[in-house]
Amino acid sequence: MNIGKSVIIKGELSGSEDLTIEGHVEGRIDLKDNVLTIGPNGKIKAEVFAKAVVVLGEVTGNVTASEKVDIRDNGSVDGDIASPRVAIAEGAHFRGAVDMQRSGVKPAAKPAVPGQPQPQGQKVGA
Amino acid sequence: MTQVTEASYPTKALQKFLTCLNGASNPLILDLGPVVGSNVTFFGEQLGCRIRVEDVAADIDRHVKEGRLEQLPAFFASRFTQDAGSVDGILCWDILDYLDRPAAQELATALCRLLKADGCLLGLFSTAETSDQVYTKYVVVDESTLRYRTYPALRPRQRSLLNGDIIKLFKDLRVSDSFLMKSKLREMLFRKPAPRA
Predict the structure, then answer these.
(1) Contacts for B103 with CB less than 8 Å, ≥ 6 apart
(2) N or C end of chain B, less CB within 10 A?
(3) CA–CA separation, B145 vs B197, rounded Å?
(4) B29 near B6, Cβ under 8 Å?
């Protein structure tokens, strides 16, 4: 489903199918089991909850996704992000905090692997 | 002419920084560099942490553009809104190299205040004078390699800080590790001592 460029919504937006927004939304967006795409023309001032969020336009507000948040080149997020996976492209704007809740086993700090670039520094401090 | 470059260099302090935070539950990291998406992913996956990106280079450029450089010390004194002792780790990168002494001291004092006891701060400091007017994005390749990617700055690096100057800036922290790297950077890891009982 698409919300077109000329559409302005103020209030709560919820649903059970994937949604692309090219218009303006202010308030709250709740698509807990679906993918929300903010198109290049989309402007959102809202708390956002979705399974996955793809940002090509502008979002002001906190974004919570159960799977992934993807801020593409020229996409903009001004707010905090909570999601197990977050991708921020080169050229994207982001101002806020990212909380990637740990899922599964934490990777242990690996020792240096032979053949990989090795530190050439010299320890000079205690 | 501003030289914009990209090259990979080894790092030793990053692994120490990760080790320092590995035991913390959902630690909070403050990143003072510009947002680098792959770094957010790296630290999130390695540490399951919260990362707050506070681009201090953008703050400096804004003050240069507005001709208000002399206001930077006062700006840094109130720049960070987080509670004292609320941050587990700070990625300071090399931002202090771009500040003169009063601004660097205010920023360092603010960072010391934010850090939790046993928290750590990673700083990089140039050991060579340079006239290139660039900032560097430090892109984490893996825990022992950083890619240095430069981009234009409105202000060059200021005078290189000596080891003693750096230690004085962070007088409330102790130097945990210091590495002189072939990239002409000194990598330093600071820890905040627990208060005495």
Answers:
(1) B72, B73, B76
(2) C
(3) 39
(4) no
Q: Report the chain B residue with the minimal C-alpha distance to residue A106.
A: B46
Q: Where are the domains of chain B?
A: 12-127+160-191
What is the Cα gyration radius of chain B?
16
Chain B closest-CA separation from residue A57 CA (Å): 17
Scored b (16 or more CB within 10 A) or e, A46-67 reads bebbbbbbbbbbbbebbbbbee
The confidence score (pLDDT) of residue A25 equals 94
Chain B residue at shortest CA distance from A88: B37
- B76's enclosing H/E stretch is helix B72-77
User: B26 versus B107: which is more confidently predicted?
Assistant: B107
Nearest-by-CA chain B residue for A103:
B48
pLDDT tens for residues B4-30?
Answer: 688 889 999 999 999 999 888 889 999
Tens-digit pLDDT profile for residues B147-163: 999 999 999 889 888 88
Contact B40, A88 (CB under 8 A): yes
d(CA B197, CA B194): 9
Please compute the mean of the pLDDT values over residues A4-15 and round it to a whole number: 87
| Parallel/antiparallel/unpaired status of strands B28-31 and B50-53 | parallel
Q: ipTM, 2 decimals?
A: 0.77
For B102, the enclosing helix (H) or strand (E) is helix B101-114
pLDDT band, very low/low/confident/very high, at B53 (cuts 50, 70, 90) = very high
Q: Chain A window 61-100: which residues touch B at a Cβ cutoff of 8 Å?
A: 71, 85-90, 92-100
Nearest 5 degrees, angle CA B60-CA B49-CA B38?
Answer: 60
CATH of span B12-127+160-191: 3.40.50.150
What's the whole-model pTM score? 0.83
**How many CA atoms lie less than 13 Å away from A98 in the CB half-sphere?**
33
Residues on chain A touching B11 (C-beta within 8 angstroms): 119, 121
Structural domain boundaries of chain A? 2-94
